[in-house]
Amino acid sequence: MKKNNPAALAAAFASALTAVTALTALTAAPAQAAPEGLSVGFGTHVWFSEYKGVDDVVYPLPLINWEGERLYVHGIEAGAYLFKNAQHEVTLGVGLMPLSFDASDSDDRRVKRLDDRKLSASANLGYALNTEFGRFQAILGVDVLGRSDGILFTGIYSYPMLFGRTQVIPSVAVTYADANFNDYYYGISAKESARSGLAAYDAGASVTPMLGLHVIHSFDEHWSVYGSSSLTILAKEAKDSPMVEDKVRFGVGAGVTYRF
């Protein structure tokens, strides 16, 4: 197994624990609206990369979630509630875009000669609707570091179910990624092509579905354990890239949290 820079994949880990990562890309099983307060914990996630020659990677990472009356910290995103009541939430935050690529992590000699794709930060505008039929979310993320100058728009539906002290949250998400985002993370320039021997590739905009499952078991009002998994089915625009070998991106994780 290979290990990437933990900061570069923190988004993939935290997206399994929060409503946004989304980025998502991110990311993953959205959490139900949380009560005010602070929770801290530690978990380990395994991420199976779609990039050619990159082995599965393990990330032992701390996690922090804090809910205030108007401010919040959800793992790798921090922001403010522009509006919040029992049914509706409007948020504005800054977080990480959950994708990166380090060419040196690949075992493929041609892929090793490509440029790195760096992690970026995004400004996120989100809306959530809590109903008896589940939680609906819409998140618009814009790259603010100029890595890709890309835009992500994600729609998420999750349905929290409670079985005694155990909460099960299945979710489904669809993410639109514009051509700038996809071309940065999956495209191959003419210069890279000449250097690596891989065919040049321009990646267009895409729509990508994802399935997630998040399970939380509470021992008491303070201690909980969780397990999570996510399956992203790559769109044609990504999986047709010469630097990609898998049609899906898969992640699993588990950990423990303490609520103060």
From TrEMBL:
Per the UniProt record, one Pfam family is MipA
Q: Name one GO biological process term.
A: peptidoglycan biosynthetic process
Localisation per UniProt entry: Cell outer membrane
Q: Provide a GO CC annotation, any one.
A: cell outer membrane
> What coarse category fits the chief subcellular location reported for this protein?
membrane
Q: Which UniProt keywords apply?
A: Cell outer membrane, Membrane, Signal
Signal peptide as annotated in the record: 1-33
Top-rank lineage group of the source organism: Bacteria
Keyword field contains Secreted = no
Similarity-based family: Belongs to the MipA/OmpV family.
Protein name according to UniProt? Putative MltA-interacting protein
